[in-house]
């Protein structure tokens, strides 16, 4: 059974399987420009329009350096994705890549994690869109009832604060939430509160994705043009209001404050991997996918760093803990008309991120179903629209229902857990490809830098850096018992142990340095996330394993092939 759990697909088998599905062939309409546009649409979404404010509040102007650090981590990962995409140009993203490198069980785990990543990302985007949309309507004098625009928990928490502290002690947003709870219609004693705009936009975008890739591409290109225009507008309009004294102190809350924004900053970069799910709709995937991934990531990194410096230069970092920071900074400096323009165009811009993730997730379902790991209906292609119709509908329901009822804060960190996990396995997969010789079939390869000695040198320099600059951290560790270390610092311990293992394996197998760097940086960022997110993620994987052993293991096409072979 152990051998069957880790049975692998060959590149030839995957390509043949994709080509054999003639009746359900997807429309090949995407070029490199379309892919870059889809990548930017996915990356520049709720992260830049919402969560960047919280990250700046916690880390101060120094959060711009965190954007650089995370961008470098993503470049390492993007190179690994690009090599896989040029080798296995089919839908499925990291799920398909893991099937080649690590076998069926790991492929299932990654596929299941990607479902969580894309679904949760879109829940955040939908909720963020709702906040901007409600603000935009208010700017035109249209005010929706509060109980139709927020999560029930947010309203109930605000109402509880009123009972404890009085309404005068709350912010305006919390006061609005408390009033929404008080005036909401009720069924018995239960108030009816939900985020209607978040559910509606998810429904509309799902419909657009359902009717065709051409329509989705056209809509995405238009919205990306608007989105980039908004960001350039903020950068060049805001630079005249920058006051250098706002950049002092640069890191007011130290390294800990900067790193507390890891989840929010990383969330702002999630999305470049989603375009790999459209491989079967590309005209030339082996050439265009690698180019598009690198280009869209570099463009977005530059924009993020510039906009972070402008935001923290226009207002003091302590003022940025708001849901709509780009509009807020112009209100702060008295330019309400510019804030209004940003709010209106942001509604359109955020929609494009929602579109790309709604486009990506059904193709993961479809590929897993094609391999027999999920029910056949998930692989069903609409005869007219040439899209995975059933999977698209399920994706819409999976995103819309939680977006109606949950707070955005609940989802941000959870998104990053699944993404880091997928990124680490893709980087490790490139090492396996190099070792096994599969890389010879790659039309794009991660530049090879012999890490035989460099990985160990990097470890020694890191240890020296902690000893010189991390005395506070060392003192904190000395006060912890072994039990506390295992309970609260387990991921950090795993990070250092993995680095030691990679030093040994890198020496033996002459590992390429860049994929190893991708593994380590992603694992380090992963270690900064809260334990509660890991508990939810592990519970999600547990449900996934029940589905796999209950259905996928038996119905796997590889399993049927093995049983049919004497």
Automatic annotation (TrEMBL):
Q: Where in the cell is it found?
A: Membrane
Q: Which Pfam families match?
A: AA_permease_2 (PF13520), AA_permease_C (PF13906)
Gene3D superfamilies of this UniProt entry? Amino acid/polyamine transporter I
Q: Which UniProt keywords apply?
A: Membrane, Transmembrane, Transmembrane helix, Transport
A GO CC term?
membrane
Under the heading InterPro entries, the entry gives: AA/rel_permease1, CAT_C
The record places domain Cationic amino acid transporter C-terminal at: 513-556
State what protein this is by name: Amino acid/polyamine/organocation transporter, APC superfamily
Please name the source species: Parapedobacter luteus
